[in-house]
Fold this protein.
Amino acid sequence: MSDLPSSFSLSLEVLSARRRGLPIVALESTVITHGLPKPYNLTLAQDMEAAVRAEGAAPATIAILGGKVQIGLTPDQLEQLANSSDAIKVSLRDFATALTGNKMGGTTVAGTMFAAEKAGIRVFATGGIGGVHREHSFDVSTDLQALASIPIIVVSAGAKSILDLRATLEYLETMGVPVVGYGTDKFPEFFSPGKTYPVSVRLDTPEAVVAFAKTHWELGMKSAVLVCQPIPAGSALDAQVARQAEETASREAQEKNIRGQELTPFLLKRVNELTGGKSMRANLDLLLNNARLAAQIARVWVSQEYRARLT
Ligand code: PSU
Ligand code: MN
């Protein structure tokens, strides 16, 4: 706590959970500022927090507001963020930009991992990670660099096939990041459970995930543990439908010469539009499912720390 940067500010809920040794789950906010249209973004953010609480953990939605890196938001702050139209997307290089420019910021997977780990949070839930883009030469998300270097458990539904999944998984292998299939041997592809690429290890329970992460880090490894949970069966989109929308979106991005930080939000928006309400429902379902699993993992983590202190 003492080495927390002065620009960090913890919500009362997170502070109290820390003091009482209760489980905490970090949640990202680019999905709120750039990933989902209004008003779904706010409902989703509130529902994710509620899902974490229902599992007995404290949610820490991370964002930049009022010149501070906020670890946990008040209901009011969450609304401000969801309703803002000029929040910037904050990955690793953008923290100082947002803080010094007094801008609101939604943190990406990389940005949220960074802030959460600094605040001592061990588990983080998101929808999909960024990766290597297809058809856009040399566009590689900072998320991959963060996964390689920040020790935290990231619960995701894998990544959208908007990305070059083969290259993304190769990168993760090169950088020594364990890719855990939660209850599956295949890498989940966000809207669909995935059936093409293998994961590096399959684990089936929160206890197994915690044991794996502890072993990984006790060895001195520095990387994240990327847990990939397939979308719930009833919510999955037809893989072909999803892929077609993603391909159209990707082609449009090329035609419009959209690149850099804007590419992912553009693709997400177009895929949402092209698949209509279906993809939105799927997106919300998998986010909530990931929040629940992350809270279960955080609970096991904390109960083991507690037991370790007793022995
Ligand atoms: N993929 C999704 N939904 C998202 C994102 C990615 O399916 O909301 C967001 C995440 O916040 C992720 C970011 O960290 O986009 C990656 O952006 P970029 O490719 O610019 O690094
Ligand atoms: Mn990029």
Observations:
- The chain has a mean pLDDT of 96.
- Residues 139, 141, 263 surround manganese (II) ion (ligand 2) (CB under 6 Å).
- Residues 8-229+288-304 form a domain with the Indigoidine synthase fold fold (CATH 3.40.1790.10).
- The chain has one domain: 8-229+288-304.
